[in-house]
Amino acid sequence: MGFKCGIIGLPNVGKSTLFNALLRTAAAQAANYPFCTIEPNVGRVDVPDGRLATLARLSKSVKTVPTQIEFVDIAGLVRGASKGEGLGNKFLANIREVDAVAHVLRCFEGGDVTHVEGGVDPVRDAEIVETELMLADLDSLERRLDASAKKARGGDVESKAFVPLMEAAVAALRDGKPARSVTVAPQDQERFRQLQLLTALPVLYVANVDEGSAAHGNALSEKVAARAAAEGAQHVVISAAIEAELAQLENETERLEFLLSLGLEEAGLDRFIRKGYQLLDLITYLTTGPKETHAWTVRRGATGPEAAGVIHTDFTRGFIAAEVIPYDDFVAAGSEQAAKAAGKMRLEGRDYIVQDGDVMLFRFNV
Predict the structure, then answer these.
(1) What letter would DSSP give residue 119?
(2) How many other CB atoms are found less than 10 A from the CB of residue 143?
(3) pLDDT tens column, 108-152
């Protein structure tokens, strides 16, 4: 399953530097001028998960395969993008293709990097981007709503289902609120997603701070945290400059020593990746054995057959049952056989809702 998290923000806030560090590569050119990134850069990164190594050790696995998330570095947005300024519609079209957005906000003063707005104010920057996205959504919906309403009056069943959702989103946007503020019934969630509204996407605010503020943040990042809390969104504090330096260190011991010298226990990117994973409302289940220990990604609420289909689509069609051992029980027992002997293995059917950390073995017939 492919899950994409788009990295957005104004030009020159550190998006491409962050992306380069994520991939430990120079794939995304970083420079001190607007629109350095024109075509979006795409890369898949491993989701940090200490459970993999533990299971691999217990199962004596030959290899481990982590789950991944895809990040897309999207060109910087400017005022008027919804009307075609900067890269305009090209930028907005790239955002429509992702499942969530990581909004990078500059939270450091000084330096050689110029700010497109002439000064540093992360809340203002967030509002600029949010306003452009809301204007683009409103324009898109208003153009579609009349046609859909006409079809609904003519008896079109599909249009009748979409019109109330579109009207609710238009009302919110006209009131200056993003589409994600609309309360949508569970049975309408998929239809609402099909509207492809930019402001319906979940948001992770990334406060890009100076090196000295990486451990505890600063006054600017606190403003970002307050905004995220008010919206019910998530945020993470990162120093893109530190992450860029870390990306150049090949030795894990050197990386750890460098982090500790800065008062950090782990790389900010590890927190960023985990937050992105949580933002998409994803969970991990695991398979393990002598050949490999493998982490698999599913959306929260996935059933046994849906989880099996991530390994191979035939597994969904031929699903019979799933042998499930919770991770903690597996580790406490020390092996799959010991967990089964202790009665910790459950046999679950088609309606089972997969839990994060489930160690699973599927029975199927195709």
Answers:
(1) S
(2) 9
(3) 887 665 555 567 899 999 998 898 889 889 988 998 999 999 999
